[in-house]
Specification:
Chain A is of the alpha/beta class. Chain A has helices at about 1-20, 45-65, 85-95, 110-120, 155-165, 180-195, 215-220, 235-245, 265, 290-305, 310-325, 335-345, 400-405, and strands at about 35-40, 65-70, 70-80, 100-105, 125, 145, 170-175, 200-205, 225-230, 255, 280, 355-360, 365-375, 380-390. Chain A folds into two domains: about 30-150 and about 290-355, Rossmann fold, CATH 3.40.50; about 155-285 and about 365-405, Rossmann fold, CATH 3.40.50. Chain B has a two-stranded antiparallel sheet with strand order 1-2. The longest helix of chain B is centred in the last third of the chain and has 27 residues, at about 205-235. The chains are: A alpha/beta (about 425), B mainly alpha (about 325).
Chain lengths: ~425, ~325
Amino acid sequence: MMDRRQFLKTTAGVTAVSAVGAPPIVKAQGSGSIRIGLLAPLTGVVASGGREMVDGFTMFWEQQGEAIAGRKVEIVTEDDASNPDTALQKARRLVEQANVHFLCGDLLANTGLAVANYVKGNGVPYFIPIIAADDLTQRARIPNVIRIAGYSASQTTHPLGDWAWKQGFKKIATVSQDYTFGHEQCGGLAQVFSENGGKVTQQLWHPLNTADFSPYLGQIANAGVDAVFTMQTGADGTRFIQQWANFGLKGRIPLMGSMNCTDQSVIRTMGAEPEGIVTPAHFAEGSDNPATQKFVKDYEAKFSKTPSLYGFSMYSGAMWIAKALEKVRGEAENRAAFLEAVRTTELTDSPLGTAIRLDAYGNPIYDIMIRKVVKRADGKFWNVPTETYSGVSQFWKYEPETYMKQPPYSRTYQGIKS
Amino acid sequence: MIGARRTPAPAGIRMLVVVAVALVALAVLPFLLPTYQVSVATQILIFAVLAMSIDVLAGYAGRTSLCHGAIFGASTYVVLYGSSVAGLPVLTAMVLGVLAATVLSTLFGVLAVRTSGVYFLLLTLALGLIVWGICLRWTAVTGGENGLRGQLQVGALAQPRALYLAVLAGSAFLSFGMWRFVQSPFGLTLRGIKDSESRMRSLGYNVPLHLVIAFTVSGFFAGTAGAMYAIFNNFVSPSTVQLSQSVAGLLMAIVGGIGTLFGSVVGAFLIIALEQAVSLYTERWLMVLGAMFVLIMIFAPEGVVGKARALISRNAERRVGQ
């Protein structure tokens, strides 16, 4: 009896408290401002990348005076905690409580996919400069989800497959993180390389956060391959490169990597171990393009570190948004017109120094650079382009509709032609 | 048990009135709140059911489980797979999800009930990790770390307020079910097992069988919460079945008060509402939550509701003494 009565009192209490003590609502400072919902992992496994995302994004808006087309710009930042459920909840809060006009951000593919599924239902524009999941701009594209200034996972590794073949490599092995981003990046390389005539003799998959790579490195050292490709992100990248050098493989077998593998976020804390690794990317902080160098200098002056892909992508993404907002005279409320403006914007003054535009599926077309890690004058290491593939879309040289008929890259489907 | 000595009829009526008032208040709530808070309230209700299902086992049978998050999430996975991949109607998918969770918990129950204390904790933790591992690695079915997505809020459920009311009706019904379960003679037997297994065994009770049934029933309720979560979230990924989900449910039960059943509702409310409120001001909200747990464990180890109940009965005793 006691239990029942107690429960009722409690329930009544909870009800009263929840009605009165609802969390405070983030009020817009003026009804005239454009509110941007920025989602980034500020805690959790990829928190350092998330911090750089916010840095890059806010750096652009600060330079812009936090206003565009005569309207103030207000950025509401939320932490997605590197967790898709949290990302979804925060996206809901930004849209339903903070009343943002559109969303931008997220780092991990699963957080991006969760938020994309949410905006699919309500039509809120969502921009993903970092989320690389192929299908978001391919088989499962959503009209209001656009990858401004981002890239699709296999977009940069397709040309790397071509480059590797042209280097005279006949047999390669791959070592990749065992998750979708890894499967997709690895698949891009494997498909193009094998279609050219090369052989992918071994594909090793290791779980995220592998501490010891010796079992994998041991297999590779004796595999008799001409080169090795590795797809790594975050701390796995640091550990792989270090152990690659420690095992004496550096300089013995040519090493190619995914762009994140030698991103500044990985190599800026390392010594000479990454030197000589070849990776493909649309951005190279060591490019001699004046626009890139200006951005690198500004970023280094502000944050005292060389910009990573995260900082660059979010900076360019913000620029893209600003251009589109200018086109529609700041009317972010008119979603259809705004999205159309985003789709048709050609970004000419980004840190890349070359014009970028979107393909018909909402993914940018880039000049993909083959980069090599070299030492710069002050002793730091950075990625310098050695070769460029112009105008590479997410479909490489394939017909988009035919390409999308093949299954998405996975652990079991790598597009390998035998 | 002082309250039980009172004349039953007026107490029963009074209780009915309070239940009715509470339900009406909860039903009116969504019309007073903006839609985002309504979705938070929906989430609180769902997690309250999960926490209560954990409390059924922890508070009444003395077995603290660390795999209920996985059972909850397994149901969510089945519902999303059923409706968005296999193309089943949402209701059928929900039934299948609950069924899957129930079967899974029977299996886990059979494996786990022979242990108790720390060993039970570790065994259920391992079982939960197996579910997590399968969801993460069986990419062809579960979508790997990207998870499964769908649009399950069909018809009127697309409205946050309607969804809240549906979840409220569901969780009120489930709460009543769990309350009946723990108050039943079977529930009394569980309490007997919690107090002394050997005594119950010598009295002729089949202790493992009782525990397996209790585990299954508790898993069934966790599964229903998981099925509601599928509708609420439209999305599932391994983070829904990971250890932290089980821990979150357990913490809600502990904060509210283990063995109080409805304390879990308070626990779910406190944790989710605080998380919402604090994360508005700082991304370090986990530290604030941590501090709250420490304070609760120091000043009210029996949980918020447990403490309140103890205070009330102490006052009542004092009054009787005077």
